[in-house]
Amino acid sequence: MNIAGPVKTSPLIERAFFEGAKQINSIVGRYFVAEKFESHTKCGPFLIYSVKCDESELKSKLVEIEDTHPIGRLFDMDVISGQGERMSRPTERGCIVCGASGKACAAGRLHPLSEIVGITEKMIKDFFLPIDCGHVANLIKESLLHEVYTEPKPGLVDPVSRGSHSNMDVSTFEISADALLPYFKECVMLGSKCRSQSCNELFFALRKLGMNAEDVMLEATCGVNTHKGIIFSMGIIAAAVGRLMNCDGYMPNTDLILSEASNICRDGIESDFKKMNGATAGGRAFLELGERGIRGEAAAGFPSVRKIALPVYHAEIEKGKSENDAGVITLLHLIANVFDTSLYNRGGKDGVLYARAIAHSITAAEEPSFEDIRAMDADFTAKNLSPGGCADLLAITYFLSMLENFQKN
Q: What pLDDT, on a 0 to 100 scale, did the predictor assign at position 333?
């Protein structure tokens, strides 16, 4: 690695090194590699290959990486011939700061070390940030698909049934999840880039993104509302991840993410409650019953996910349940404990209480009966009940579990 200053290694530098190693491997993999040696010391990481090839051809390919890769300026890819001669570059490398002759700037110490180090770190971070944001967004999309594929789900769309939703099926959700992928990446990016801004400023910036995302969703689904709730809740969580993650590969844990999600939206949501009207099911539930719905969940850091869904899901996985079956049981526990404003919208307070009572009776058993859950699905469909809010919380549960596994791997 071509790193200025006395500090030659750090998690960020190591990550850049592995990117360089990946690029080299893509080249030397075409040749016979007699030996490979890798070391990570206080003097920095390095990698040595003994390769049977045309050294001029190899040098040309490595110079191309150095000159064209976004962080190629930091790669130091030397080629030593079989006769012990170091192969030269056809052109001198420019200064990382000003682009002039690198040797001249270094010899004359024309730039302070702090400036060079700062540019180096920025170069690495600028390269990895969109990659990391893309990874997080892809996990979110995967969690949305995982939720819709989970079955049986009382009153909800799954691969077997449309539930209480005659205007949508699994393919509608797949189209919607695809369309929303760029939005979730934007949310992670926004969280990362707005670390110095107040949480309130970030929340209102997210709100603008969310409104645009709703339009994208409706256009993609021909007017069907598949993910309006998750645009709100998962957008906040995505921004929290972005605000906390580091480009050295660090991803925050679930507790930190949910706490930061609360920090981001709490003040803005409390302000919303003060001027709430009855235009939405959530607004009516708040004005009529004092129920705070998904807004309250988000403002409090998603306690239903933290205290109910994740513990149940992990416990069921530990018992040997499949991800699908663990998800179904988790959903039932959410229905049993959460005041779901989607249920309230379709069945009023009585509909919520009815759904909670059935879910309680099923989850009270040591091993919940899937036959009973399928009967519950048929019953909800007949009564036009749909626990869409709990489905969103299940998707969040899936995402956080996937992110935990991503960190471990």
A: 99
